[in-house]
Amino acid sequence: MNETTPQDPAAQGNGASPTAPKVNMRILAQYMRDLSFENAAAQKKLQGSNVQPDIQVQVSLDANKREAENQYEVGTKFKVTSRNKTDGDTLFIVELDYVGLFQIEGVPQEQMHPFLLIECPRMIFPFARRIIADVTRDGGFPSLNLDNVDFLALYKQELQRQAAQKAAQGAAPAPN
Predict the structure, then answer these.
(1) 9 assigned to some structural domain
(2) Is position 10 within any domain?
(3) For 35-57, what is each residue's pLDDT tens digit?
(4) Residue 149 lies in a domain
């Protein structure tokens, strides 16, 4: 005979499954895989009040399962380029490849891919932002504090890009 207790969510009528796994995520490690800073303004000796920076930020993500059970490596790559609006000259370029090693349990397999590319980068982003701010400041520029990144929107854009690419491949004539 199967009895329910008052603590059982199904007995309370809230619709939650009593067997739903609890999601547990831990950051085991974080590190810079690669960092590059190029101060093009110093090389060109750009000076004066005619410098009006235009900042462009590119973000890419990747995730890989590790050999250890439930461990994943999630990489965030940032490329920040600052150009002078008046003449288009490059002021600086920062490239950062920042990685988090995660222990993840309780996420259903069909939800793991979006979890890895949305939630995990969201957790390590503040640390990458701090590194970029420190590097730009130490490179002789005002500290660059990146705006928050909408990793959900990035994930959706990538899915749309992949769907469009598959559709274009399907519509292309087969080679003879």
Answers:
(1) no
(2) no
(3) 999 998 777 765 555 667 899 99
(4) no
- The rounded distance, in Å, linking the Cα atoms of 166 and 5 is 51
Output 136 or 172, whichever has higher pLDDT: 136
Question: How far is it, in rounded angstroms, from Cα 49 to Cα 12?
Answer: 67
Q: Give CA–CA dist 70/112, Å, rounded.
A: 11
Q: How many C-beta atoms lie closer than 10 Å to residue 102's C-beta?
A: 23
CATH number of the domain where residue 116 is located: 3.10.420.10
Q: The domain containing residue 76 runs over which residues?
A: 32-144
Structure tokens at 88: 């288009």
Please check whether residue 73 is in contact with residue 9, taking contact to mean a CB–CB distance below 8 angstroms.
no
Structure tokens, 155: 């994930």
42 located within any domain: yes
**Can you give the pLDDT at residue 31?**
98
Which run of H or of E encompasses 69? none
Strands 71-84 and 53-65: antiparallel
d(CA 129, CA 132): 5
